[in-house]
Amino acid sequence: MTLPGGKTVTATVGEDGTWTADVPEDVTLAEDDTVSVTQTETGKAASEPTTKTVGAADPQTPENPSVNTDNLNDVSPTEDEQDTGIDVENPTADTEVTAKDEDGNTIPARIDDEGNVLVTPGTNVDGPITVTISDPKLPGGPVEVEITVNDHNSGVDDNNQQPPVGPGKPDDNGNSSNKPGDNGTLKPGDGSTETETGSKGSHHAYIHGYPDGSVRPDGFITRAESAQMIANLKGLNMTNKLAPGFADTPSSWYNGAINAVVKAGLMRGYPDGSFRPNDKITRAEFAQLIMGLDKANSSVAPFADVKAHWGEKAINQAYGNKRIIGYPDGSFRPDASITRAEAVVITNNLFDREVDRLGLGETLENPEAMINFTDLYKTHWAYYELREASNTHEYARRSKFGVVENWLIIENSL
């Protein structure tokens, strides 16, 4: 075979008559180049030269990125950049890596040219470190990996910087990631008993995930889901499984919950006879929903956009009881939808339910019984709030007048 430029190479012929040749590295073939091929066989004359045109190369489909965690490394609490052992194969321009410690502090992280994930823990790290690799093309979505920090333990305040309990900084959604708290007064019917060091009791799960294993913390909650959540929390009688008496509520999973909250006077339908079970519940509607469960007060919310709003009274009460806060621009956005995480933070606050990292630590007998969700990461601002809401558990208050719990045993299977 004679290549452009005159160089000759030997080709082989397969059983199907296909000619194959290795092109030298110093020769580059381009589309529409021509090569001359002559076939020879022992004892026979050489064939006449045949000219062949080089066609376009087959397009190569790039492989999707993937994450290999077979050889993880522990890291040390130093200012040195260290290899986690996480290997990102075929990263793209959209591949991102983030890392946080147990206090929620950001840990510097990057992917080097060979796909290795490197972190710089720092001397003030509270281990372990949670590394998250994300890319729109990652099969199965973001990958979360826990990296052990030497001489640090999960659930232990390794750096003596326990996150504050009490009023927290509002997030972009207008909610505080730490509950304001009160004097720890226990609600009747929560299964609590008073002890010298703090109350003991049990809390039942009141939210559940979806069939695909997710909990969708940042998804908007519907009116029917809100009814189910409050009915669970209050322990309402949900035995009436008849279709609710509204124009748009055919018999469905929500029958018992909607019937229960309507009977209790906590929710009602619209003037047109509908209930709109699948509509996203608004912030004002959620304030109205919890109004009958909370204590009355004479507070006036400072939000300009709730004046003369139909839900103003409920919003004023919720604000006075520190169940809600507004946005940095001074608004409340009463007609905006509310997420599942935001709703859980409010109801946990209302029912004196709170756990933190330490509360899921050494006092918990069976941490393996915890219900996990595919889309709930430790880095989520409401991670512990959603844990509190989704697991049935026995607890002991950490102090006599406090609300924060130390979990004793998870009872999801009981």
Strand order of the largest sheet: 5-6-9-8
Report the sheet-strand fraction. Answer: 5-15%
Gyration radius (Cα, Å) is 31 Å
Percent of residues in helices: 10-25%
Number of strands: 14
Can you summarize this structure?
With 414 residues, the chain is of the alpha+beta class. The protein has helices spanning 223-234, 255-263, 283-291, 312-320, 340-350, 383-390, and strands at residues 12-13, 19-20, 34-37, 50-53, 66-68, 82-89, 96-100, 109-111, 116-119, 129-134, 143-147, 200-203, 393-397, 405-410. A hairpin with a 7-residue loop joins strand 13 and strand 14 (405-410).
Describe the structure.
Residues 160-196 have low confidence and may be disordered. The longest helix has 12 residues, at 223-234. The radius of gyration is 31 Å and the shape is elongated. It is α+β, with helices and mostly antiparallel strands. It has helices at residues 223-234, 255-263, 283-291, 312-320, 340-350, 383-390, and strands at residues 12-13, 19-20, 34-37, 50-53, 66-68, 82-89, 96-100, 109-111, 116-119, 129-134, 143-147, 200-203, 393-397, 405-410. The protein is built from 6 helices and 14 strands. α3 (283-291) packs across α4 (312-320). A 4-stranded antiparallel beta sheet has the order 5-6-9-8, with no helix packed on it.
List the helices and strands and how they pair.
Layout: E1 12-13, E2 19-20, E3 34-37, E4 50-53, E5 66-68, E6 82-89, E7 96-100, E8 109-111, E9 116-119, E10 129-134, E11 143-147, E12 200-203, H1 223-234, H2 255-263, H3 283-291, H4 312-320, H5 340-350, H6 383-390, E13 393-397, E14 405-410
Antiparallel strand pairs: 1-2, 3-4, 5-6, 6-9, 7-10, 8-9, 10-11, 12-13, 13-14
